[in-house]
């Protein structure tokens, strides 16, 4: 935004407000690990200064992702260590084959909770009777890597009352995702703590995830809650606060500023 002040009849001064998506604006909120991870990556090429982020929003972004039943393998291995196909993540190859066979329409994605917890499975699916998305976490991911709901005695925890924000941060798949995803995770955590405090952030988990398609649309952000699932593309730092405000209100609202960047939806908030 350009603010013009008249000094004389012939002299003006134009004061430019800082770009909220610039590296200078976001750097104070980034962790040392993120700064290390994105070191050497040009923001104009891989970050939020690239042409597809700054130019007109492409109409083909709408509906470019089919959002449906989604299964996440939560691993302690951080995103920067995943190989291109996440085949070095323990259990991925075995479980992906089992998901493909048992639930061919489901998506299977690796995620990192950034917490000192055991590996687990998070299952997000629509419950037609309840008209809501049910989110269930299953413990004990270990050999021979069976689907947990098919194994007797597996502990299942209903987490449908919470929010899960998954941000594609798959460095080895595409540097744009690695750069944008790492930055957005830090910004989300910072904004959630400021807006909702420690108690509120206990209800909202923010984590990196592996490739979800559409590198050109980085940052790619998927949010699951009982209200539904939604994927945004070309997500920028300035979009973080509107989403956090909507989460704090907990009504399943979609920020108007993001409606033209919805890649896919499922559940009760799908339009």
From TrEMBL:
Signal peptide: none annotated. Gene3D superfamilies: Glutaredoxin. Pfam families: Suc_Fer-like. InterPro entries: Aim32/Apd1-like, Thioredoxin-like_sf. Transmembrane segments: none annotated. CDD domains: TRX_Fd_Sucrase (cd03062). GO terms for cellular component: ciliary plasm; cytoplasm; nuclear lumen; nucleoplasm. It comes from Leishmania major. This is Sucrase/ferredoxin-like family protein. The lineage of its organism: Eukaryota, Discoba, Euglenozoa, Kinetoplastea, Metakinetoplastina.
């Amino acid at each position: 935004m350009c603010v013009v002040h008249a000094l004389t009849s012939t002299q003006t001064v134009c004061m430019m407000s800082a770009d909220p998506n610039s590296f200078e604006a976001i750097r104070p909120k980034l962790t040392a690990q993120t700064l290390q991870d994105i070191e050497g990556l040009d923001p104009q090429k891989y970050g939020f200064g690239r042409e597809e982020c700054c130019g007109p929003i492409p109409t083909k972004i709408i509906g470019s992702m089919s959002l449906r039943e989604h299964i996440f393998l939560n691993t302690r291995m951080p995103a920067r260590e995943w190989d291109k196909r996440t085949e070095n993540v323990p259990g991925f190859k075995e479980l992906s084959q089992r998901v493909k066979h048992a639930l061919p329409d489901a998506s299977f994605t690796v995620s990192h909770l950034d917490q000192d917890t055991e590996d687990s499975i998070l299952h997000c699916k629509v419950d037609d009777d309840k008209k809501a998305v049910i989110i269930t976490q299953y413990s004990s991911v270990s050999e021979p890597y069976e689907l947990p709901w098919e194994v007797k005695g597996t502990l299942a925890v209903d987490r449908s009352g919470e929010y899960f924000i998954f941000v594609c941060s798959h460095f080895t798949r595409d540097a744009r995702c690695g750069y944008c995803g790492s930055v957005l995770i830090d910004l989300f955590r910072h904004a959630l703590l400021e807006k909702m405090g420690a108690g509120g952030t206990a209800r909202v988990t923010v984590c990196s995830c592996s490739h979800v398609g559409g590198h050109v649309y980085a940052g790619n952000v998927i949010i699951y809650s009982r209200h539904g699932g939604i994927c945004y593309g070309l997500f920028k730092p300035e979009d973080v606060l509107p989403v956090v405000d909507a989460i704090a209100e907990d009504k399943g609202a979609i920020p108007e500023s993001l409606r033209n960047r919805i890649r896919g939806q499922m559940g009760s908030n799908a339009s």
